[in-house]
């Protein structure tokens, strides 16, 4: 069972991060590929959902429910991600909001799969 963490991509990498996986659909500005181990953009919210969430006054609970619904169709990709990790899995995101972002929703969905 992997320990799942979330972290902003702009924070310094540390050995405790374990496997570092970017889970945003768009590549973050100024970030070199060497800072991550994998880019799992297929596990990011759909482009439509991402645009709606960032483009208007969008309730996070609604975003979370719709994103979790999208993730239900990606269970095999989520299992592959969990199986590819031994130890710690750090989900990286670019959002400035540390508590309300796609990585926190994905982390919760991954933890649900593990139980």
Stretches where pLDDT is under 50 for at least 5 consecutive residues are: none
Helix content: 25-40%
Q: Name the average pLDDT.
A: 93
Number of helices: 4
Q: What is the structural class?
A: alpha/beta
| Largest sheet entry | 4 strands, parallel
The side-by-side strand order for the widest beta sheet comes to 1-4-2-3
Percent strand equals 15-25%
Counting copies of identical and different chains, the oligomeric state is single chain
User: What is the terminal-to-terminal distance?
Assistant: 9 Å
Order of helices and strands: EEEHHHEH
What does the overall shape look like?
A: globular
CA gyration radius, whole angstroms: 13 Å
* Strands, count: 4
What's the number of structural domains?
A: 1
Description:
- With 115 residues, the chain is an alpha/beta fold.
- It has one domain (3-114).
- Helix content is 38%, strand content 16%.
- The protein has 4 helices and 4 strands.
- Strands 1-4-2-3 form a 4-stranded parallel sheet, covered by helices on one side.
- Helix 2 (60-72) packs across helix 4.
- The radius of gyration is 13 Å and the shape is globular.
- The termini are close together.
In short:
With 115 residues, the protein is an alpha/beta fold. The chain is 38% helix and 16% strand. A four-stranded parallel beta sheet has the order 1-4-2-3, covered by helices on one side.
